[in-house]
Amino acid sequence: MAIGMDIGSTRVRIAHGHGTGQATVIEAVLARDLPAGSAADGEVADPDLVATVIEDMMSELGVRARECVCAVGPPVASLRLMQLPRMSAIDRERAARIDVERRLGRAASDVVVRTTRVEGSPDNYLVGAVAGKALRSRTDALRRAGLRARAVDFEGAALLRAFPRAEAVLDIGMARITLHVLPNGVPTTLWSATGGAAITAAIGEELGLEERAAEARKRSIGVVGAGEGAFGEIVAEASTLIRSARRRGCPIERIVLFGNGSRIGGLRVALERGADVRTVMERPTGLSTGAYPDDVAMVGAADWGLAIGLARWERR
Q: Would you state the pLDDT for residue 183?
């Protein structure tokens, strides 16, 4: 039994299936909104509240399993490729921590650092780093919901499992645009601290609407008549990330769009013009065709993909 747990800034998504790793078939996906302020910027601010939401979801799914896989990503976590000579595991962790501190420009006293060897390459390692406070807030929420994190994955790795045919996945979230690419089999992530909330705020300011009304307007008719400037900035930021990845040797011609911000009307056309790239929405791999026909899967793909990729995690 496999459970993928995506705790986002505004929603929790749980994917439940049977099997292991790439053989996992996802039979149920559930999503619930979180109360405002209970999670933000990669941290769970109110573990008790989030745990209550998770408990209700697990009860509705009728799942008895107590282990799950959750995820971390920017701005609280990073993953990069590093070449290391042969050394002991302890020395390797020390070397990785020194590299993390060099990139942070400060001591990483509350940063959890882990290394894992890239399969088929004896000197290449993936170095993962995550803020200890953010990691503890997630595992604490799970513990209060009666669950245990079997593993904590990196968002990019999970999304690229959900969409394995993608050259890149562009995640447009509430407060962050993130581009995940997979050059040479190693996840690489670029991100910008802006997202769909900026468009909502612009619509509210221009039309004098409260946040909820501005968000509803954005979802229904996009940026027609309001929010066009913020929308243009989102497109420009996403295009910059794509061009930056290309300069790093990632020949991106086709990207899968993910995140609820990717549903904004006109975004696909604007991105294709701004970044000279083909954009697609794709059915997540492993999602049961019997439980979720294509029309349903395509509607949910932008919201469910991360949870599905997490449920398909396997130890290597």
A: 72
Q: What is the pTM (predicted TM-score) of this model?
A: 0.92
Residues contacting residue 296 through CB under 8 Å, at least 6 positions apart: none
Peptide bond into 75 cis (omega under 30): yes
Q: Find tokens 């609280």 and name the residue.
A: 76
> Does this chain's domain 1-76+133-163+284-316 share its CATH topology with 166-281?
yes
> Which tokens go with 161?
């499992």
Q: What is the Cα–Cα distance from 262 to 303, expressed in whole angstroms?
A: 10
**Position of tokens 């008549």?**
225
Domain boundaries, the chain: 1-76+133-163+284-316, 166-281
Q: Which of 125, 89, 129, 127 is nearest to 108 (CA)?
A: 129
Closest CA to 22 of 315, 256, 293: 315
Contact 188, 245 (CB under 8 A): yes
Per-residue pLDDT of 63-119, as tens digits, reads 888 999 999 999 999 998 899 888 898 999 899 999 998 887 778 889 999 998 888
196: Cβ contacts below 8 Å, ≥ 6 apart? 172, 173, 174, 218, 234, 259, 260, 261, 264
DSSP code, position 120? T
Reduce the secondary structure of 173-207 to three states and give it as a string.
CCCCEEEEECHHHCCEEEEECCCHHHHHHHHHHHH
Rounded Cα–Cα distance for residues 153 and 313 (Å): 8
Residue 280 and residue 255 in contact, taking contact as beta carbons nearer than 8 Å: yes
CATH number of this structure's domain 1-76+133-163+284-316, picked from the four choices 3.40.1650.10, 2.130.10.10, 3.10.129.10, 3.30.420.40: 3.30.420.40
Number of residues that this document lists for the chain: 316
- CATH 1.10.287.110, domain 166-281, yes or no: no
